[in-house]
UniProtKB/TrEMBL annotation:
PANTHER family: HTH-TYPE TRANSCRIPTIONAL REGULATOR, HTH-TYPE TRANSCRIPTIONAL REGULATOR METR. CDD domains: PBP2_LTTR_substrate. Gene3D superfamilies: Periplasmic binding protein-like II (3.40.190.10), Winged helix-like DNA-binding domain superfamily/Winged helix DNA-binding domain (1.10.10.10). It comes from Pyxidicoccus parkwayensis. The keyword DNA-binding applies. It holds the Pfam family LysR_substrate. This is LysR family transcriptional regulator. Belongs to the LysR transcriptional regulatory family. Residues 12-69 form the HTH lysR-type domain. The keyword Transcription applies.
């Protein structure tokens, strides 16, 4: 037998990782204790032990609960992939020949369909034994479909997920930008203000009401100005109207990026900073293993980057 050398001897064990992941998901030691079937003092001691082993603080203790530190975020990201890989290894050892697991997937926002199908093709090699299908017909109401059992996994932005019987995790963000013609009066601005948005026509797709509410809250806070929205059915139509100087398109970076290299469109941010939209993955507990594998693959496959000027 070839000499493979001494195996690594990490300081953390799987129990440490499970405690940290439970705390990151739950936000409090009390809720994590319920998930782990432990007492709250036992969870607190386990967290302190993990931090002591690493010599690093993993959570900041705040009045609103536990918040991951940069070290904690790094550990949670790596721990998820590590446990998924370990689970895959155990599964292959236990059942060398297994029937494929079929997962029905839907996205709450149509923008994800601009990259998800090609991403699924790239992920096939890293997701052996999983058969993924898109249930596009449930895009407008992913959570009712999840509850009814019509889908197994949903990528969501604004929808609320019931706690009983379901899991959810944040996986990535995209940036919502303001796209306009280079000849538009606002194109010379370094950044846009809220007053700028009040004075122009905003071009969007057929966004769900919850998405519009999220936009208004993030941009205007408690203020509720009457904005001029024009909804168009196709992305190409939105960009063509923006290119003609007839409004400002409000689009995800995923859609906008391929169209910004032609020289006739520019992307702008708000003066208050990038408008980032958090994406979450939600799934039925019956597909825990498959959903975690999909999540780990999506974290490294979703597109990134937007040229904003």
């Amino acid at each position: 037998m070839a000499d493979i050398g001494a195996p690594p001897n990490p300081r953390l064990d799987i129990r440490d990782l499970r405690v940290v992941l439970a705390l990151a998901s739950a936000g409090t030691t009390a809720q994590a204790a319920t998930v782990l079937h432990l007492t709250q003092p036992a969870v607190s001691r386990a967290l302190l032990a993990a931090e002591d082993k690493l010599g690093a603080r993993l959570f900041d203790r705040t009045p609103r609960g536990l918040v991951l530190t940069p070290a904690g975020e790094q550990l949670v990201s790596g721990a998820t992939r590590l446990l998924v890989e370990l689970g895959d290894l155990e599964h292959r050892v236990r059942t060398p020949v297994a029937l494929p697991v079929r997962i029905r997937l839907v996205c709450e926002c149509y923008t994800a369909y601009h990259w998800l199908p090609s991403a699924l093709v790239k992920m096939r090699a890293s997701l052996p034994g999983l058969e993924l299908s898109l249930a596009v017909e449930h895009t407008q109401e992913p959570i009712p479909a999840l509850v009814a059992g019509d889908i197994d996994v949903a990528l969501i932005t604004t929808a609320s997920v019931p706690h009983a019987g379901f899991q959810e995790r944040e996986i990535f963000t995209d940036e919502v930008a303001f796209i306009m013609s280079t000849s538009h009066p606002l194109a010379s601005r370094k950044a846009l203000t809220r007053d700028d948005l009040k004075e122009t026509t905003l071009l969007t797709g057929r966004t769900p009401p919850a998405e519009t509410q999220w936009f208004m809250k993030r941009v205007f806070g408690r203020e509720r100005p009457r904005l001029r929205f024009e909804q168009l059915p196709l992305t190409e139509a939105i960009l063509d109207v923006a290119r003609a100087g007839m409004g400002v398109a409000v689009l995800s970076e995923w859609i906008a990026s391929p169209h910004l290299g032609r020289g006739d469109l520019v992307a702008k941010r708000l003066a208050s900073g990038p408008l980032r939209r958090p994406w979450r993955i939600a799934w039925r507990r019956e597909v825990d293993d498959a959903a975690l594998r999909l999540m780990a693959a999506l974290e490294t496959t979703a597109p990134r980057g937007l040229a904003v000027g």
